Fold Transcriptional regulator.
Amino acid sequence: MDKKKCSSSKEKCALQEILGVIGGKWSMSIIYALFTGKKRFSELERMVPNINTRMLVKELKNMEANGIVVREVFATVPPTVEYTLTTKGRKLEPIINELYKWGVEYVG
Amino acid sequence: MDKKKCSSSKEKCALQEILGVIGGKWSMSIIYALFTGKKRFSELERMVPNINTRMLVKELKNMEANGIVVREVFATVPPTVEYTLTTKGRKLEPIINELYKWGVEYVG
């Protein structure tokens, strides 16, 4: 989140900080793709519509730093990289599913 | 949402489209501020930490076009403009509150 001091109430700053972690249009789609289990980079790139490689790298780095996903590298040739949701990330499943239901009713 | 044809599954495109409507970091904070009732532009500007006037104008236009808020102009001198959540917007309240609770536990 923008490090500028948050002058508003504690509650609103907290929401702003939360949305800084998972509020991005791409992060929720990536989390949604990971609900069905660990994925490789190339799989995520196919699963998230309209995302490009640079954006996916950036989002995954941000999500790893925020403890939403873990990144595992396997010493295959070439090396394989897999991403999995942490417990913290998995707890978003009911919320994102509710958001999806809202959207199907009101946006689809 | 980027008009490029959404080649992935219908479900993932729907989520992408939904997040295009309310996925923005600012839109959820604006919706959160409107849960406590209609607000003027200047009130919203104070309530949403770190947002600037140009961004708030853009987000409110987008939200009005997507039927999340209604904009009412009152013929005072100078004219007053108030924003209110539509039924569609208000249905996001439990979802954003759950997101906030998740954040307080995992991000705060």
